[in-house]
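Quick review question:
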């Protein structure tokens, strides 16, 4: 039976966590399979299995007396169990059948472990001896003595080099797993050693004791690294989180604690009603299962707020292929360099590896990765070159590196040379809509704007693209607009002009361009302003100028103004001009330009200056259209696209 309760946690973020209860009576310990699909509990002389949530999937019977401990192989195929009948049983995890029974112990066994390469199974208990069998054939390969009181703790390192034991004599013995030879021995605690655990990288051994302490030991040197003691009562169980960043400390005094390994700080404390005997992290890092003494249920706490990264522990020595790193933002990284103008950038991407990702580091700092491999890093930028180094390591220790430079330019930064710049233009005009009412002058406006720019100003015919009527499908407009991300360089400029129907969704507060083939009342077939702005945000131009002669096009812009300044070309700009605010606008009488296009073209044709800034054009159009028609144009910098105070400048030809 599953019960959903709400419990208060003493947690660094002050959160309240959910609890699930599994109906298991008198469980002695708890263990998750390596893939997290099952959770097992010794209960009496049986072993209970649960699947996702509260689903009981299997009960295994085979021991004649009480089962004390179980362990699962890392390939999710085997389980080992042991207990007071002095045997170890190997089980087929897939079908629940017994494979073989291992014998040799002279007294009750208390702990069992399978090596991470699935070669050995080890057990120990009351007779103080360590027994190690071969999994493949069940042969007992060695028996080792060394403890003077019975053994309560047993752990195998994840790299399969070492096996550690501890017990009533307060000693820890570290042995070579293959031979059983003693590598190191500590008299580590003032009372019984109740549990041992290796960190996922096998560099740290944690020992838990009835003296109320947990000590971290450096495996290679034998030196003490840290000690946790901000808890009360005997410590009966301990385990590292899947990513090795946390360690759980389970106490007999009705509480489980989770500490940060590196800092020693307490991250979580959970009280229970009864003394505890065991706990276990789920492999995905989102759950913590706890077992109460003589309890009628096992509680699983939601600890996803700790943001523990899942780590797959399968190691394939034949895997020599490094992970793949894809960076989606910033886009268009060329020659490992990209330019950016704001003080903080969201670096977005994906890290992929078939075996699983162990960690991602950006400039030496470990960064969380989502289950699907996606990551987002907020990176502050200083002026000038910002070097980014991304390191991804898979579970088989293959390394992939990606390095690039984000250049944040000073406001008076690189010298922009107008005579060397290309002025790219995209003009869209639609009269003959397939489903919407036809317009009178959108195509005429588009052609007249194009001819004016090419004929009178410094815009080359080869850099101007005009899309009209049936060519102006949603896909064609978007693909053409997106192509400028690769075509436009930081030394170039882009002007986009749209003349056609517009639409505004008040529920979503979103404006749209309506393409040629779109149906009426079909928002999903329109081109949203947010998509247009996202594309333009990724066009790495010196100046971008967006002009929209469409209803409700004012939703593109922020409400701010800016005047003309000297040398505005040397500052990056992102300007827009719309024919109206959140209102319908006039298409004009048939055969003429729309009021908006008429003012736009009129200013360009009557201008006699060698060069004019976009703010002059915007101001003229705003005033002229407001005087001549019942609509109010708006012209301002575009929303959040990296505008630095500059302006697009139009140069007349022949001057």
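Suggested answer, residue by residue:
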């Amino acid at each position: 039976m599953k019960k959903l309760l709400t419990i208060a946690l003493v947690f660094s973020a002050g959160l309240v966590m959910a609890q699930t209860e599994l109906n298991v009576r008198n469980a002695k310990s708890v263990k998750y399979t390596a893939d997290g699909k099952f959770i097992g509990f010794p209960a009496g002389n049986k072993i209970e299995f649960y699947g996702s949530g509260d689903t009981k999937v299997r009960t295994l019977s085979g021991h004649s007396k009480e089962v004390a401990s179980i362990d699962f192989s890392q390939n999710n195929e085997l389980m080992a169990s042991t207990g007071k009948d002095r045997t170890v049983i190997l089980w087929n995890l897939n079908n629940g059948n017994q494979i073989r029974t291992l014998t040799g112990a002279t007294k009750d066994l208390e702990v069992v472990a399978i090596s991470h390469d699935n070669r050995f199974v080890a057990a120990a208990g009351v007779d103080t001896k360590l027994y190690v069998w071969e999994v493949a054939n069940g042969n007992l390969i060695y028996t080792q003595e060394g403890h003077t009181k019975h053994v309560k703790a047993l752990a195998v390192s994840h790299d399969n080099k070492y096996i550690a034991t501890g017990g009533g004599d307060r000693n820890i013995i570290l042995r070579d797993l293959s031979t059983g030879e003693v590598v190191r021995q500590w008299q580590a605690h003032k009372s019984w050693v109740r549990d041992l655990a290796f960190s996922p990288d096998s560099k740290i051994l944690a020992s838990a004791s009835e003296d109320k302490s947990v000590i971290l030991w450096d495996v290679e040197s034998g030196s003490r690294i840290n000690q946790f003691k901000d808890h009360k009562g005997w410590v009966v169980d301990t385990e590292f989180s899947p990513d090795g960043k946390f360690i759980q400390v389970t106490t007999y005094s009705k509480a489980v604690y989770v500490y940060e390994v590196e800092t020693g700080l307490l991250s979580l404390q959970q009280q229970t009603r009864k003394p505890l005997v065991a706990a276990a992290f789920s492999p995905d890092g989102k759950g913590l299962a706890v077992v109460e003494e003589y309890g009628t249920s096992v509680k699983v706490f939601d600890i996803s707020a700790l943001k523990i990264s899942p780590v797959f522990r399968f190691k394939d020595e034949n895997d020599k292929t490094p992970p793949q790193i894809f960076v989606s933002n910033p886009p268009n990284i060329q020659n490992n360099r990209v330019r950016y103008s704001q003080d903080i950038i969201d670096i977005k991407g994906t890290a992929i590896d078939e075996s699983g990702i162990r960690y991602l580091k950006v400039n030496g700092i470990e960064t969380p990765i989502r289950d699907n491999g996606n990551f987002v890093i907020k990176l502050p930028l200083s002026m000038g070159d910002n070097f980014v180094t991304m390191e991804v390591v898979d579970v088989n220790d293959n390394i992939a590196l990606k390095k690039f430079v984000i250049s944040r330019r000073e406001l008076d930064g690189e010298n922009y040379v107008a005579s060397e710049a290309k002025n790219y233009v995209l003009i869209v005009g639609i009269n003959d809509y397939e489903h919407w009412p036809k317009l009178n002058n959108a195509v005429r406006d588009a052609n007249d704007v194009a001819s004016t720019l090419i004929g009178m100003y410094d815009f080359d015919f080869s850099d101007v693209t005009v899309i009209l009527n049936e060519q102006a499908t949603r896909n064609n407009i978007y693909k053409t607009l997106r192509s400028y991300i690769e075509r436009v360089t930081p030394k170039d400029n882009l002007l986009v002009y749209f003349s056609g129907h517009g639409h505004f969704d008040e529920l979503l507060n979103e404006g749209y361009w309506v393409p040629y083939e779109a149906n009426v009342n079909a928002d999903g077939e329109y081109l949203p302003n947010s998509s247009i702005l996202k594309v333009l945000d990724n066009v790495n131009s010196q100046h971008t100028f967006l002009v929209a002669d469409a209803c409700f096009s004012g939703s593109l812009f922020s409400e701010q103004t800016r005047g003309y300044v000297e040398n505005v070309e040397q500052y990056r700009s992102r300007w827009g001009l719309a024919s109206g605010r959140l209102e319908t606008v006039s298409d004009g009488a048939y055969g003429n330009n729309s009021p908006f296009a008429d003012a736009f073209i009129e200013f360009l044709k009557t201008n006699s200056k060698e060069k004019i800034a976009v703010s002059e054009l915007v101001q003229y159009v705003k005033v002229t259209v407001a005087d001549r028609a019942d609509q109010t144009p708006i012209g301002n910098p575009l929303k959040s696209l990296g505008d630095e105070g500059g302006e697009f400048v139009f140069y007349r030809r022949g001057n």
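Why it works: The two ends are 85 Å apart (CA to CA). The helical segments are 442-456, 474-487, 529-537, 595-606, 614-628.
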